[in-house]
Every structure is written in C-alpha cells, then in structure tokens.
Amino acid sequence: MTGFFDGIDALRYEGPDSDSELCYRHYNPDEVVMGKRMEDHLRFAVAWWHSLAWEGGDPFGGQTFERPWHPQDDMGRAKLKADVAFEMFEKLGVPFYCWHDADIRPEQGSYRDNLRTLEEITDYMGEKSEGSGVRCLWGTANMFSHRRWMSGASTNPDPDVFAYAAATVKGCMDATHKLGGANYVLWGGREGYETLLNTDLGQELDHMGRFLNMVVDYKHKIGFEGTILVEPKPQEPSKHQYDYDAATCIGFLRKYGLEGEVKLNLEQGHAILAGHSFEHEIAVAVAEGMLGSIDMNRNDYQSGWDTDQFPNSAPEVALAYYHILKGGGFTTGGTNFDAKLRRQSLDPIDLLAGHAGAMDVCARGLKAAAAMLEDGGLERALEERYAGWQRPEAQGMLASDLASLQTRVLDEGIEPQPRSGRQERLENYVNRFV
C-alpha cells in the first residue's frame, strides 16, 4: 500500500438516508435495473489523465497539486502512480480505467525510449489488473500536448509527423490489446486548423481518413476484438476541429468507408461546446447505430471552455441514459469520468468524493431513465405524434413524386391544421421521474 489514501475506507452503498461523507447513496452495483446489474449497465471507468496525471494547472496558473509521484519524469514515479491508481479503483469499486500513453509513462524525448517505457508500464499495469480484476475500458494516444503535434497528427503538413503519429498509435494499440482493452479511442486534439490561409483542408481530411483506415486494418491484423472509437470535439484547442460533433464525425466515417468499423465516444462537455446537449449527441449516435462509449462530465455554463467538472445534474444525466438504454445500452463501451477536481481541491479524499458523487448522480439518472422507459410515457407520446405516418397512403407518399402529391392536395382539398407539440407537458412528465 502506498499510504496515499491512509485512513480512508473503501466506499460502500449505504442508501439515500446515509449521512456519511464518503459512501454511495444511489449507486448499488448489484441492484437490478431492467434485468441487468447496475454495475453492468454503467460500466464506470476512472480517467488516468485528470485523476492522476493532471497537476492542477489552468490557462492562468501552474501546478497546485503536490502528489508523491511528482514530477512525473521517471519509471519509479510512474509505477507509484499506478500503485495509487489501483488503490483508488479498489476503494471506489470501479470496474474499469482509461489512459493516454503520456499519462502512464514519463516523457523520454525520443520515440524509441517512450515506446520502451510504455511497454514496461503496460506489463506493470497488466499484473495489477490481473490481481485486482479492474480492466482497461480503453486506451488512446496523446497526440496534442507535445510541441511536435502543434500542427496536427494525421493531418500534419509534415509527412514525418504523420509517420510518428502512426508509430505512436501502433504502440498504444499494442498496449491496449495487451491489457485486454474493450475499446481503442482516437481523439484528434490538434486535427483541425488555426487559419485556412495555410491549410489544405481537403488533403488533411483525406490523410485523416487514410490514417483511420490504417488503424482499422491494424486492429484486424493483431486480432483486437475491441471497438475503435473516435471522439468529437469542437474548436478547442484549434479554431476549427474536423471532428466537430457526432453528425460531423458520422459523415466523415461514411465518406471514408469506416461506418461499419468505427463508433463514437461522446463527451458531455464537448457536446456543450458544440452548442448541443449531451442528450442530442447521444440520440444522433443511437439513431445511426454508432454509439460506442461516453465520457461523463459537465462544463461550467458561465465559462466558454472545457472545464471538465464532475457531473452533478441528475435530470441531464437521466436524459442521456434514457437514449442509451433506448438504444440497447452499452456493449463494449461504458461511462468514463473525463472529469477533474477543481485546482483548490487538494486532498486525497477530494479525489474519491468527486467520483463518488458523480457515480451517485449517474445511478440516479440511470434509474430515472429506466423508470421512464418502463412507464412508456414518452414512447406513447411519440407514437401518437407520428401515428399519421402509419397509414398506407402516408407510406406511399414516400415513394411518390412532387407532381402526384400536388394533385392529391388539390383533389382532396388538404389544409393541414397544426397540432400541439406538448413540450411543457412532456417536460412535466420527465420531472416526475427525476
């Protein structure tokens, strides 16, 4: 034991009336919801980067956290960080974790040395995974922090950077495969542009599409059975990112013949930056059969950037899980907390409390979503609103033409009368559950 969480017991489910500071009031992993254990529905994961690698900086100030594994510059401290990570997973009772390569191994300056340390820490994490039963939900490559990525990775105008990105992803896919990862994620943190004055947009998109096809080819070559995921995000840090939102990514995947191979990892905070709700992004992905996994967090609605706070709104979360459950729930995906403490929350207990509160919010949202689905009120309202399309003549219209439809309107004297969308009544219905 590292001693980092000394004096803090493992969290347990104590029910909604508990007055303990550190427990679960709503997350009961063994509670059965819609025929499945709550743990198996939610598939919680801890994000290595925010929980363990982030040092507490923001755009206006540097490090505030002083952890025993700082500075993160050698393998001894990388292994200590892994030791603390698995202690944290055990205390929280989470089944999964997620990582970037730069989170788990120190930056060594050269690709060869970074690959060596990645392989070493992968073996170390693999031993700890076997001992604990905590598994890798997904791995990914950090191709946005180092200066080499300042003009993109697969979209970089320098072919040497494209090659370096390919080598980096191969190493991370190998590590994810070795750890038994359920998915592999690509988030194009710099795949975009600052100005079109120096950007060949068409070429960059073609290179990005070819790169992702290489990733899929390699997945099959090594027998990786997990899902390849891409993660939409608008603007930040680039002025325009090619993976702007769910609809943009789906269009991109179809253009490059990847819609049968790649799904989406959607984040609450990124949805907000794109001007959408999380519910919207999930509904788009579910409608297209392309929902893979989610990063659960929230943004500060008074800030215009990605603040990555732990979720605390059960109504928002309930609507997200409503669409996830309606789409059949997760398969290889899960709920990863891409969320970080506030930079003033310095204590180890804060790290556990942030996750515990978020897990309870998700549990409350899941139960509310399941109750709404089982009651069927929203589905009945949808059926009623679209009932006219069930008539044979309405279905026939879809195979008709403009001239025929004009003739029908003239012959039958059709003058449609608007009907209420019932939005307020439906919002009141949702509020009964959340």
Automatic annotation (TrEMBL):
PROSITE patterns: XYLOSE_ISOMERASE (PS51415). Mg(2+) 1 binds at E231, E267, D295, D338. SUPFAM superfamilies: Xylose isomerase-like. Its cofactor is Mg(2+). Its EC number is 5.3.1.5. Binds 2 magnesium ions per subunit. Coiled coil: none annotated. Keywords: Carbohydrate metabolism, Cytoplasm, Isomerase, Magnesium, Metal-binding, Xylose metabolism. Mg(2+) 2 binds at E267, H270, D306, D308. One of its GO terms (molecular function) is magnesium ion binding. Transmembrane segments: none annotated. InterPro entries: Xyl_isomerase-like_sf, Xylose_isom_bac, Xylose_isomerase. PANTHER family: PTHR48408, XYLOSE ISOMERASE. Belongs to the xylose isomerase family. This is Xylose isomerase. It comes from Sagittula salina. The lineage of its organism: Bacteria, Pseudomonadati, Pseudomonadota, Alphaproteobacteria, Rhodobacterales.
